Amino acid sequence: MSDPAQLLSNLLGPRGWLAGGDAAAHMRDWLDRCGAPPLGVARPATTREVAEIVRLCAAHGLAIVPQGGNTGLCCAAIDGQGGNVILSLARMNRIGQPDQASGSVEVEAGAVLAALHESLASHGLIFPMHLGAEGSAQIGGLIGTNAGGSHALRYGMMQDLVLGLEVVLADGTVWDGMRAVQKDNAGYQLRRLFCGAEGTLGIVTCAVLRLYPAPRRRASALLVAPGLDALVEFGTRLRAEAGEFLSGLEFFGDTGLGFVLDHVDVGGFPLSARGPAYLLVELASASDHVPLDDILLAQFEHGVECGLILDGVLAASDAQRAHFWKLREELPEGQRLEGPQLKHDISVPPGRIAAFVSEAGELCGRLLPGVRANPFGHLGDGNIHYNLSPPPGAPDFGEVAGKIGTALAALATGMSGSFAAEHGLGRTKIALADATRGAVERRLMATLKQALDPAFLFNPDVIVARNAKE
Ligand SMILES: Cc1cc2nc3c(=O)[nH]c(=O)nc-3n(C[C@H](O)[C@H](O)[C@H](O)COP(=O)(O)OP(=O)(O)OC[C@H]3O[C@@H](n4cnc5c(N)ncnc54)[C@H](O)[C@@H]3O)c2cc1C
Questions:
Q1: What is the pLDDT of residue 326?
Q2: What span, in angstroms and rounded, lies between the C-alpha atoms of 125 and 154?
Q3: What does the alpha-carbon distance between residue 219 and residue 316 come to, in Å, rounded to a whole number?
Q4: Is the CB of 112 under 6 A from ligand 1?
Q5: Which of 15, 183, 223, 259 is 20 to 30 A from 58 in CA distance terms?
Q6: 141 Cβ inside 6 Å of ligand 1
Q7: Confidence of residue 470 (pLDDT cuts 50, 70, 90)
């Protein structure tokens, strides 16, 4: 028998192989884009099964698209061309007991981030990755995209939180790199190679993740500023004064806040007046003895005296703190519900954030008068989600969508930044990478792909296109 669908079905059983209508839920991403019908969805329960799927697909010339929670924003976890095998690790979701003394935990790749947070709650430890999609995003997907999130300025990106990995390679062999140490310079940094590889170099099946002591104290504030330049100046001072206690520094504008208040039930806006720019600040400490409220209050008052801050409120309870974060985290959902949008995942050196947003506004306004910009993101690391909605009443972006993306990428690159800060390239940004990155860098990436996956078995046309092997 050589029908690959039948072979996969036999190998994995009814819980492990979905086809036809049962596969439909895996076809479209969070933005409802791009899905083409796959041959089916493989849902292995063990690393051995993953390896067998890889060997079987390789033998039949079928490509594999690894899929986590499918919340990635670059069409990297759905079948772009159709007829391929989507590999979902959702059944491989075991979370081990944390190693308290070492600050680490073993987690299977299909575990959902929020479940990991919950499992650690009673141990006095945290895994410090937080993002709006944490109720669905899986460890394998977070590693695949090298996710950043709202605490990256303090704890780093996913590559900084992964100590060890187990990966199934394109020939069906398994790399056991499940070490649990920060320091391991025995050769190339293989674990980092798979962080941000978007499923193109291997299937991550298990990881050892780095944990931190849970904060005992937190101080949070929602501040209103006269503009982004004031926020950047305020943020610079805050970094100097709050140092290692600063764990969140998130900015957004009034257009984005309007989308959230119009479309999402967030419990209203906690300040008496709106303004042009907002900052969510969070300080956290594992020690009970650090006067975080005093530090934050002093900086808030100083900001007001200098005219950098117009108004603000310090969270008086965990519920109020959660309310501030909800306003920030619902920004993508608010804009999604507003209608069509263009997402741009930019990073620039933090000192250039205001300059980027100002120049980008002029540039986009010239290309599409009336376009509505909703810049928001992570002030501490310069990551700007520069998302656009069409002018009021316009159905979409017409012919200019591509031009806007190229112009913004060039602007960010010209400021020593990136056009793919934390979401990756996926299928949607390969052309931008070709247009923006030098030939040497592109050749290095193609060489890596060629070395690890010469037959383009894993996620073809993500990061490196098949016709760009050189
Ligand atoms: C509301 C919202 C807010 C978000 N906020 C942030 C944010 O603040 N910061 C941020 O970085 N991202 C953010 N994202 C993007 C997204 O959540 C992240 O990219 C996340 O890491 C994707 O995880 P996932 O499990 O959904 O992966 P998927 O979307 O399923 O997959 C992402 C990539 O990883 C690959 N992959 C999946 N599993 C594996 C595996 N086991 N082995 C190898 N490759 C694999 C896929 O092939 C794909 O290339 C946000 C998304 C949404 C919808």
A1: 96
A2: 16
A3: 9
A4: no
A5: 15
A6: yes
A7: very low
